[in-house]
């Protein structure tokens, strides 16, 4: 077991990112917790079974329940069902809610724990690359509401996020690539020599190298991405400034996802983020956008907008980050150097 990074605010450690060899290893770091309530994505039953067994052996398992996690089911009703289950199974203020799954599972469980009895402790075992490098770190929790993504929620930190690259071996390739986009995003925000390394590794995996054969490099890069995110969140937990950088590509991406859903076509969050980052790069530097396009396509990610640019404007205005007609766009000076600028959607579209 190894502490990878911490979220520290005013000298106080709010959350830790810990890594271990396999999912069940999480049971070994629960010394300070008496009883654990576990909610897990029904897609990762095998990993959940290993954890459940280890928790039972240590006498800590109070209850566990599967969740059919999907963007459509990421609703307040699903959270209320979790509250019912916590109440019915006797969860008290001392309970730890452990969520095992991707970002949808961790977002909902974090929210459910944050409002249950005015807040109980929670922790995550993210089982997707996207959740390991982004969603399960930083304390953004919540649900979709009235067709708006993550409209209801709170920022409250998990006690810890337990990361093990081994769980990614069973992740569908498309979901892996979705996380790859968030990893590349992180290193475009803060490079530390990791962006090129990540492109090379992701390109190898996209062209057939197995995850099992590259676990060590993957672990190093996931840890580095987690550390970048933890650093940003430590400096700006409630997104008044620097944390906005983590939304690089996301104003476009949310609009792309919204349009795709309306048109009945499917696109993953990461695929939309990849296209969104390239559009964001085009706002400042067309040559840089071309370079990113090449890198992303080597990593197996889509790079072209599947709709006419104009038709994205309406969807972008619906984004919750649009305030007073202006949107906080994250722009790229160079790899490792991004900044925010407030632009109207019309100004941004014109620049493209
Ligand atoms: N996913 C962006 C953030 O956590 O701020």
- Rg (C-alpha, Å): 20 Å
* Count of discrete domains: 2
**Name of the CATH architecture of the largest domain:** 3-Layer(aba) Sandwich
**Average pLDDT:** 94
Helix content: 40-55%
Order of helices and strands: EEEHEHEHEHEEEHHHHHHHEEEH
Identify the overall geometry.
globular
The total of helices stands at 12
What name does CATH use for the topology of the largest domain? Rossmann fold
Largest sheet: 4 strands, parallel
**DSSP E strands, number:** 12
The ligands bound in this entry are: glycine
- Strand composition percent: 15-25%
Straight-line N-to-C gap: 47 Å
- Helix and strand content put the structural class at alpha/beta
The largest sheet has its strands arranged as 4-3-5-6
Describe this structure as you would to a colleague.
By secondary structure, this protein is α/β, with parallel strands linked by helices. The chain has helices at 45-57, 76-88, 103-115, 129-135, 173-189, 194-206, 215-235, 250-262, 269-282, 286-298, 312-318, 345-351; strands at 2-9, 12-19, 36-41, 61-67, 96-101, 121-126, 140-145, 148-155, 160-163, 322-323, 326-334, 337-344. It has 2 domains: 2-171 and 214-235, 3-Layer(aba) Sandwich (Rossmann fold), CATH 3.40.50; 248-351, Dehydroquinate synthase-like - alpha domain (Dehydroquinate synthase-like, alpha domain, Up-down Bundle), CATH 1.20.1090. It is built from 12 helices and 12 strands. The strands form 4 sheets. Strands 4-3-5-6 form a 4-stranded parallel beta sheet, sandwiched between helices. β7 and β8 (148-155) form a beta hairpin. The mean pLDDT is 94. Bound molecules: glycine. Residues 134, 138, 140, 243, 246-247 line the site of glycine.
């Amino acid at each position: 077991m190894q502490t990878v990074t911490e979220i520290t605010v005013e000298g106080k450690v709010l959350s830790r990112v810990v890594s271990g060899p396999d999912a069940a290893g999480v049971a070994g770091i629960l010394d300070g917790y008496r009883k654990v309530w576990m909610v897990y994505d029904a897609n990762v039953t095998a990993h959940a079974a290993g954890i459940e067994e280890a928790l039972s052996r240590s006498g800590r398992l109070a209850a566990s329940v599967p969740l059919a996690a999907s963007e459509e089911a990421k609703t307040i009703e699903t959270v209320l069902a979790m509250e019912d289950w916590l109440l019915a199974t006797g969860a008290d203020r001392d309970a730890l809610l452990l969520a095992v799954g991707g970002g949808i599972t961790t977002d909902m469980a974090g929210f459910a724990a944050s409002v249950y009895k005015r807040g109980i402790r929670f922790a995550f075992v993210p089982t997707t690359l996207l959740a390991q490098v982004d969603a399960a770190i930083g304390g953004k929790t919540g649900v979709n509401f009235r067709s708006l993504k993550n409209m209801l929620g709170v920022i409250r930190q998990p006690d810890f996020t337990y990361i093990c690259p081994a769980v990614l071996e069973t992740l569908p390739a498309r979901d892996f690539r979705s996380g790859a986009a968030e990893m590349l995003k992180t290193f475009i925000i803060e490079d530390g020599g990791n962006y090129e390394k990540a492109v090379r590794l992701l390109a190898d995996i996209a062209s057939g190298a197995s995850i099992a054969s590259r676990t060590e490099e993957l672990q190093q890069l996931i840890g580095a991405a987690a550390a970048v995110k933890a650093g940003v969140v430590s400096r700006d937990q409630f997104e008044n400034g620097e944390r906005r950088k983590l939304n690089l590509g996301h104003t476009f991406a949310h609009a792309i996802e919204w349009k795709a859903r309306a048109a009945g076509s499917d696109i993953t969050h990461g695929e939309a983020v990849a296209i969104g980052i390239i559009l964001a790069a085009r706002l400042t530097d067309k040559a840089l956008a071309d370079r990113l396009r090449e890198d992303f396509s080597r990593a197996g990610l889509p790079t072209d907008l599947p709709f006419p640019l104009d038709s994205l404007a309406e969807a972008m205005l619906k984004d919750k980050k649009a305030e007073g007609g202006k949107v906080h766009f994250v722009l790229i000076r160079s790899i490792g150097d991004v900044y925010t600028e407030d632009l109207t959607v019309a100004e941004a579209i014109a620049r493209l």
